[in-house]
Write a structure and sequence with these properties.
Layout: E1 11-23, H1 35-52, E2 57-69, E3 75-87
Antiparallel strand pairs: 1-3, 2-3
Length: 93
């Protein structure tokens, strides 16, 4: 997984996305350290999708974070990630 491009020969397999969220309770509305776990969840989801596309990695990965506030509901921490699945050429043996 990389936030940059891969500068060697590769095949693009497609773009993937993943989202994870966590509801904040009214008793603890400022638990922003929970973002760390959400990043890990999104990364694992991206890895799983890359594997399902027979990819060797994910490049140009980007993450967006959001605190979603509903009018009558509690706040949600949201992490959205996306990237490009690539595969590396196999050497003939």
């Amino acid at each position: 997984m990389s936030t940059g491009s891969y500068n060697q020969s590769h095949v693009i397999k497609g773009v993937i996305t993943a989202t994870s969220q966590k509801m904040l309770t009214s008793e603890k509305p400022d638990q922003f350290d929970l973002f760390d776990g959400l990043f890990e969840e999104v990364k694992q989801k991206l890895f799983e999708q890359a594997k399902s596309k027979n990819g060797d990695g994910v490049v140009d990965v980007r993450f967006n974070t959001e605190i979603a506030q509903m009018n009558v509901a509690p706040k949600f921490l949201v992490v959205h990630g996306y990237g490009t699945v690539i595969s590396l050429p196999k050497k003939n043996e």
